[in-house]
Amino acid sequence: VPPMLETASPLRSSHLRDPLGPEIHFAHESFVDEVAFTTGKDPVEFRLAYVSDQRDKDVIEAAAKKAGWQRRTAARKQRNGDIATGQGIAYSTLNGTRVAVIAEVEVDMKSGKVRGKKFTVAHDCGIVINPQLLTQTIEGNVSQALSRAIHEEVKFDTKNVTSVDWETYPILDFTERPLEIDVVLINRQNIPPNGAGEGSMRPIVAAMANAIYDATGIRLRQGPFTPDRIKSGAA
Fold it and tell me: Is 205 exposed, middle or buried (0-12, 13-18, 19+ CB in 10 A)?
C-alpha cells in the first residue's frame, strides 16, 4: 500500500482472510489445552466448564459428539509404526459466530510431515439461509487455514522478502487436502445471520497444534508446522 510505506512497514501487504485470528487463537487455545492437562482435566470438559453462553456450549458439544471425542487428560501418543495420530479441539468466536473444530492429524515421525486428515466443524452463525453454500464456505476456510498451518510463511532477510514464488512460499496442494471435512450446522432460526466468511478460519491452526500434541507430546509454539519444527521438537 504505497501511501503507508513512509510511516509503516516497508514490506508490502495484501489481503488475507482473517489476518490475525488463526495466529492469536493458536496461542491462547494451545494455552487452554495446557491448562486443562496441567489441572488434570479433559480439554473439552475444561472448555465447557468456563463458557457461560449456551450457544458456546452447544458448538463445543456438537463438535465433540460428531467427531467421537475420547476423553483424555494427557497426550495419548498413539502410534502405528512411524505414524502418530492425534485429535485436538479449538473454539473461537467472531462477530457473534461461534465455531468449534476438532482436527485429526497424522504425523510421520520419521519425516516430520504433518497431515490434516479430518476436520469436524460445528458452526453457529445464527439463522442458516443457504446450507449448501455455507458448508462449502466452511470447507474452503478449512483448506485455506490448513495451508497456513503447515506451509505458509513469509521469510525475509535484511533487505528483501525472500518468499517470492510457489517454491519459496508453498501452499497446500491437492494431494494434501483433508480426507474429510464434517460440518455440523446449528440453525438458530430466531437469530439474525452473523456471517461465515472467516469464523471457521480461526480455530483450525490451534486445533491442529493440539492434535499434534495429542499425537506426539510435542507442544509447538511457532508455525507453520513444518517437518523441521516437528523434528526439532522431537529431538
Answer: buried
Task: Give per-residue pLDDT as tens, 99-110.
Answer: 999 999 999 999
Q: What is the grid cell recorded at 22?
A: 488463526
Distance CA 192, CA 71 (A): 34
N- to C-terminal Cα separation, the chain = 42
Helix-helix angle 21-38:43-50, to 10 degrees: 100
Structure-block grid coordinates of residue 183: 460440518
Q: Are 144 and 20 in contact (CB under 8 A)?
A: no
Q: Is the CB of residue 184 less than 8 Å from the CB of residue 69? A: no
Phi, psi of 126 (to 5 degrees): 90, -145
Rounded CA-CA distance 148/58 in Å is 27
Using a cut of 0.85, tell me whether the model's pTM lies above it.
yes
Pairing between β-strand 114-124 and β-strand 78-80 as defined by DSSP bridges: unpaired
Distance CA 233, CA 235 (A): 6
Q: Which residue has the higher pLDDT, 6 or 52?
A: 52
Give yes or no for a cis peptide into 227 (omega within 30° of 0): no
State the residue for C-alpha cell 487452554.
32
Do 184 and 68 form a contact (C-beta atoms < 8 A)? no
200 contacts 58 by C-beta, under 8 angstroms: no
Please tell me whether residue 99 adopts helix, strand or coil conformation: strand
CA distance 127 to 124: 8
pLDDT tens per residue across span 148-197 = 999 999 899 988 889 989 999 999 999 999 999 999 999 999 999 999 99
The amino acid occupying position 21 is G
